[in-house]
Specification:
Largest interface: A-B, 44 and 53 residues
Radius of gyration of chain A: 15 Å
Number of strands of chain A: 7
Structural class of chain A: alpha/beta
Strand content of chain B: 15-25%
Low-confidence stretches of chain B: none
Strand content of chain A: 15-25%
Strand order of the largest sheet of chain B: 4-3-2-5-6
Distance between the termini of chain A: 37 Å
Number of strands of chain B: 18
Radius of gyration of chain B: 21 Å
Number of helices of chain A: 8
Low-confidence stretches of chain A: none
Shape of chain A: globular
Largest sheet of chain A: 7 strands, mixed
Oligomer: heterodimer
Helix content of chain A: 25-40%
Chain lengths: ~160, ~425
């Protein structure tokens, strides 16, 4: 799938996408500034399928949905962290962007490791180290949201049936 | 899953149960709740509008219950921001939204909505802004969400929630001079950490609540999100009801509903906070939980380039009053920019009527129209590389107020005003 980018704890939405760019409406243009305040090279080097591995409380701070959106648009396949700030957590599911809770994977994976994810089984595979890690199972409601493709599609389903 | 079969509930759980058609809810339960207010601003609103349009819905669920506030990059800071504000305005007109407020009438949303009576006790409120948790001060369940949640809320009048467990903060005693609600919440965040209340409710209770002003309570509830909480909430007392009665809505009818936590409600932990023992507290860069008392901070003689007094945390009347009290007859130190931002037009007008505007200008401070601008490094006070600000705002993350090497120290209006006068982080008691 892709390589791992690794960051510490409490990565906040102000560094995922700084407020000074929030006047930009085009997601592709916005994604060029993803993570720029903690990793100036991220947007230039990230490739589709890469994953972000980080410490606890990922996505803390502002409610800006631009944060999971720029990661999704940049091609990030998933975020792996021991825990998430609650608004980022909601937003990720609402826009159909996969995030996994796994303290074990967040600890073991190093920057640059080649990572594969079996989303159906909730298994994270580290090809570089030859290890596998288990992610926390998703609550049923969250699985349903992801199956629908996000909240917009969920609402469409609810309002048209 | 259901670890509480007794039926007892916290205040938050009772409000959520009543809004979701359940007699009883428990932590971890997924519910869909009816919404009393759905809020969005000029940054999150346009993203929500895009998602709303994709939902294939023509009308918002209720023209009065959707509140739109262009407050972040307004008055429009540049052409792109102007386009976003225009999208919000056009949507409001097209959908017949009653509670859209234009620049000149609008204020910083979380100071503005309670002042205008648009939120009240017992309601379930979502806002596409993380500091929506502010309205917990009125005894409402109120929480920040993203734009897609706000869009679904505007379309259906409902939102999904995982019912939170709660942490109780038993407040005793009363605040000493120069110590405010801001210091209470910075102290608590310093104690439990930026993820200390992750996914949970922070329920404030105890005899100390009565001694806190409404402005103190708003500042405390406002920063619940900075401890990771889903919401912060205060019990409804005489002060709450007096505030609500003094701030009726002109655009709609609102009736406060009082919910009380059961005496045997379960809390994951209980902390007792002696308000009388608190000191002015300052969060050092770059996380709100990196706190020191004013004594520890002042000893370090930290020079500042800018002092910002305002924001959804501390742009209220009492905040302006304490700033005026300190700046009266004094001057902002050479080399310091002091920027004062009243939270709403009404508060701005009170600053004029009370003579505080004159005090601020004579002291050499900037008096700005209400805007979120400086707090998030948007406009009206962006920091250059290496600059340092003391601010009554709510976040001191890397690059929050400008360049990534700039620094933000979070403090109360008293400390920010005193520091503006001396040019170093200062205890107001020592002025």
């Amino acid at each position: 799938m892709g390589k791992a980018y690794k960051y510490g704890a409490n990565v906040d939405t102000d560094v995922i996408i700084p407020a000074r760019y929030l006047n930009i409406a085009d997601p592709t243009e916005l994604a060029k500034h993803a993570m720029e305040d903690i990793d100036a090279d991220f947007a230039k080097t990230v490739a589709p399928g890469d994953v972000i591995v980080a410490g606890s409380n990922f996505g803390s701070g502002s409610s800006r949905e631009h944060a999971p959106l720029v990661l999704k648009v940049a091609g990030v396949a998933a975020v792996i962290a021991p825990s998430y700030a609650r608004i980022f957590y909601r937003n990720a599911f609402n826009i159909g962007f996969p995030i996994l809770e796994s303290a074990e994977a967040a600890e073991a994976i190093d920057a640059g490791d080649e990572i594969n994810i079996d989303f159906a089984e909730g298994v994270i595979i580290n090809e570089t180290k030859g290890e596998t890690y288990k992610a926390e199972p998703l609550p049923e409601f969250m699985s349903k949201l992801i199956e629908c493709g996000g909240l917009v599609e969920y609402v469409r389903t609810v309002t048209t049936t | 899953m259901n670890n509480n079969m007794s039926g007892s509930m916290t205040m938050t759980q009772k409000i959520l149960a009543a809004h979701s058609g359940h007699d009883h809810v428990y932590p971890g339960m997924f519910i869909e709740a009816d919404l009393d207010v759905v809020l969005a601003n000029d940054i999150t609103g346009p993203v929500a509008i895009k998602e709303f349009d994709r939902m294939g819905v023509d009308k918002v669920f209720d023209c009065e219950k959707v509140v739109l506030t262009p407050d972040h990059f307004t008055p429009n800071k540049d052409i792109k921001a102007a386009e976003l504000a225009k999208e919000l305005r056009d949507f409001a007109r097209e959908k017949g939204i009653v509670n859209y407020f234009e620049v000149g009438r609008v204020g910083i949303e979380h100071a503005f909505l309670p002042e205008q009576g648009l939120v009240t006790a017992g309601e379930v409120i979502i806002g596409a802004d993380s500091h929506t948790c502010t309205y917990g001060a009125l005894g409402a369940f109120s929480t920040g969400v993203g734009s897609t949640d706000a869009a679904a809320g505007m379309a259906m009048g409902k939102a999904w929630f995982r019912v939170p467990a709660a942490i109780k903060f038993e407040l005793v005693g009363a605040l000493p001079t120069w110590v405010s609600g801001k210091d209470v919440i910075l102290h608590i965040i310093g104690m439990i950490g930026v993820d200390g209340a992750l996914y949970k409710s922070m329920e404030f209770a105890g005899p100390g609540v009565a001694a806190l002003s409404m402005d103190d309570r708003f500042a405390i509830a406002n920063m619940a999100i900075e401890a990771g909480a889903k919401n912060g909430i205060f019990p409804v007392d005489e002060k709450t009801l007096a505030y609500i009665a003094a701030h009726p809505a002109s655009t709609m009818t609102k009736t406060p509903v009082i919910y009380e936590a059961d005496a045997d409600a379960e809390y994951e932990s209980i902390y007792t906070i002696d308000l009388s023992a608190l000191r002015p507290t300052i969060s050092f860069p770059s996380l709100p939980d990196n706190t020191k008392t004013v004594g520890e901070a002042a000893a370090l003689k930290i020079r500042i380039d800018q002092s910002v007094i305002g924001s959804c945390t501390n742009g209220r009347l009492e905040d302006m009053e304490v700033a005026a009290q300190i700046l009266k007859g004094r001057k902002v130190a050479d080399g310091v920019r002091c920027i004062i931002v009243p939270g709403t037009q009404e508060i701005f007008l009170d600053c004029v009527k009370n003579g505080w505007a004159e005090i601020f200008v004579e002291a050499g401070a900037v008096l700005s129209t209400p805007t979120c601008g400086p707090c998030l490094g948007g406009h009206m006070g962006v920091l250059a590389a290496g600059e340092r600000a003391i601010a009554t705002t709510n976040r001191n993350f890397v690059g929050r107020m400008g360049h990534i090497t700039s620094e933000v120290y979070l403090a109360s209006p008293a400390v920010a005003a005193a520091s503006a006068v001396t040019g170093v982080i200062t205890d107001p008691a020592g002025l």
